[in-house]
Amino acid sequence: MSEAFYVTTPIYYVNAEPHIGHTYTTVVADMLARYHRLKGETCFMLTGTDEHGDKILEVAQERGTTPDAVATEYAQLFKKTWDQLGIDYDRFIRTTDPDHRLVVQSILQKVYDAGEIEFKEYEGLYCVGCERFLTDRDMVDGLCRDHERAPESRSESNYFFNMGAHFSWLAETIEAHPDFIRPEHYRNEVLAMLSEESGLGGELCISRPKERLDWGIELPFDNRYVCYVWFDALINYLTGVGYPDGSEFETFWPVSEHIIGKDILKPHGVFWPCMLHAIGAPLPRHLNVHGFWNLDNRKVSKSLGNLVSPQVMDERYGFEAFRYFLLREMVFGQDSSFSEPLLIARINADLANNLGNLVSRTLNMTGRFADGLVPRAGAPGEAELVIEETAARVTSEVDEHVLSLRPQRALESIMGLIDATNRYLELREPWKAAKDPERADQVPTTLYTCCESLRVTAVLLSAFLPQTSHEIFSRLGLGNALEGAFLPELTRWGGLEAGLPTRKGPPLFPRIEVTEDSK
Ligand code: MSP
């Protein structure tokens, strides 16, 4: 049986349009799923929307409509956006889906029956933006650190999950599996949250009285309450693969990879493992945490009103170019800055100059000196062997980087192969060699080496830039080059057959001239 791979994005709140932050997480997940498919693994990618909670009710009230109508409108917007941008997810889950409600209720009942849920009075400061009660550490000058708004004082009788009972188990588990939360820095943050000094407290309020909020999943053991939105939302990762007894659950849960932004580390790094432990389910394989995209040094988010829309980026630059920028620019785990001049500089340097040049020079010369057909190579010389070795090295580096969640390094490595091939072309100068009787017989080998390097590049790029990769295959006379073939065979040197009809085509990524608008 082939290996399996399961990747999830956070499910997005239905109160904001898709922006750069959502797009980054989604693109990383899509890239990982594509890469693992390329290795012949059975893959499942889950994304969707988080639709319950005060936040959505607030939007509905502001607009004089129902939460259900708001949720449906935004869920469709997210789904349509990912569809248009070519995100290849396997399920788009909505927390209002009937199967999800059943799973959440069955888990609540299970935890309740195990005696881990208690009913009592609670008083605290609640942030609607975070959908939770805040601790002192969550606030600066009386305002929520993330949302820059004042929390409300609330006192309620509620149900509490005794997650603290699982803290010492969780801390030990994290210590014993140091790469469960990665990069390392976030593992340490979770360990700090679990320590007594953090003030986190071991009780998680998991209910909301219906008299205040009736937009949610009803508690199976008390119909006066609905479930707290985070307890409901996290469970989507189980519903998505058929928990508790679907065969997909058995296949995919043990190999699950969550991708999240650093602002939701606490629910994923603390609440979720405790919930899973309480129901006797294993932990996901990894919790992968990325940083924030900043604009003018502030986090891009709906509440701060500075959106970078993936559709606008698509219209202006093409989604593949934006996707490249996101994956190449951000060091996974750290914060990055977004600006259009940075985006343009990246596109011009890497895609227009480096990749675009190699494609156009190789295919133009194959047209001129080989009747447009992939030539047959002669015996390789030293320079050809260097390219062949570079391709093999880059293939293994890409694998290592992707598996260790370093997309930026994987792309850097692929650019290195393209760069080496451009330099090889300069060295061999087929445009001159073709006219030189002493060197003319080198030309087919030179052009074959470039075409083959482009093929390997297109294979490696396929998870990152699927459309661009497809276009390169098509120009090399290869149809669906990825069908029925997998890594590492796909990148084995010499896989390109001589005689295939190539096609020049327009520039893959035209150079973008910097205008006053984009400065
Ligand atoms: N609904 C919760 C997640 C529940 S998962 C069981 C949520 N939704 S969200 O729509 O607010 O955010 C979703 C993701 O977008 C989070 O991973 C968050 O980190 C990410 N981003 C939002 N703004 C961001 C940036 N400016 N930069 C990078 N990602 C950030 O949280």
Structure overview:
This protein is α/β, with parallel strands linked by helices and 519 residues long. It has helices spanning 20-38, 54-63, 67-84, 98-113, 167-176, 184-194, 229-234, 236-239, 247-252, 265-278, 310-317, 319-329, 340-369, 382-403, 407-428, 430-433, 443-461, 466-475; strands at 4-8, 12-13, 42-50, 91-94, 117-127, 132-133, 139-140, 143-144, 152-162, 181-182, 203-205, 207-209, 218-219, 222-227, 256-261, 286-290, 293-295, 298-299, 336-337. Strand 5 and strand 6 (132-133) form a beta hairpin. The strands form five sheets. Strands 1, 2, 3, 4, 10, 15 and 16 form a seven-stranded parallel beta sheet that branches. Strands 6-5-9-11 form a four-stranded antiparallel beta sheet. Helix 12 packs across helix 13 (340-369) and helix 14 (382-403) packs antiparallel against helix 15 (407-428). It folds into two domains: 4-307, Rossmann fold; 340-490, Isoleucyl-tRNA Synthetase, Domain 1.
